Amino acid sequence: MRIISKNKVQYYCFSLLFILATFVGLSHASEKKTANIYTYKSTSGVTSFSDIEPLDVNFSRYRFDCYACEVDSLINWRKAKLYLQPYKNDINQAALKYGVDPAFVRAVIHAESHFNAQAVSKQGAQGLMQLMPATAKELGVKNSLSAEQNIKGGVKHLARLLRKYKGDNELVSAAYNAGEGAVKKHGGIPPYKETQVYVERVGILHKRYGRFSHVTN
Questions:
Q1: How far apart are CA 193 and CA 153, in angstroms?
Q2: Helix-strand-coil percent breakdown of the chain, rounded to 5?
Q3: Which terminal CB of the chain, N or C, has fewer other CB atoms within 10 Å?
Q4: Is-above-0.90 flag for pTM?
Q5: Is residue 112 among the annotated active site residues?
Q6: Domains of the chain in sequence order
Q7: How far apart are alpha carbons 3 and 93 in whole angstroms?
Q8: Is pLDDT above 90 for 209?
């Protein structure tokens, strides 16, 4: 197992994190296109990083890609496990407040972070709905790793996009993934393979979560 111990200085800590992420990505390029980095505290209290999931310790996982964005994903999105209960109250309350279908919210969370509230992307997006720091600030989210705040902010963002694109879920998904500028530039879903598979998978998940609305409401 490759492990990098934390230097007491935070600057070196995060430098080592990204160096390790780069090394792992290159060394496994022929096997997979995404990498996970795990951070945890050793028995001596030193924070460490590893590319292998630690055993018998509490850890946080840093993703370096959104869950549904991998073009060559082998996941069967029509049969993949659904998460009907996690963050149920937070999702339903935010969805009701902003007038968004709870099933769509769950689909986006599933696609973005696989319901991992501590997920952080290589671009800096954080939490369940992978909010970028600037977006989170605009939405009034002070802590993107707080599930409640992240969901509330993310759903507020979805509601705004739904108004902008007149309820077109595909355009909303595309804008959520690639940005509103890309949707405007291309007059619709951008011709980016990652965005196209993301939109398709969010659509599949939305329909599947919608079938269980009686369980989640």
A1: 27
A2: 50, 10, 40
A3: N
A4: no
A5: yes
A6: 3-63 (no CATH), 88-117+127-216 (1.10.530.10)
A7: 41
A8: yes
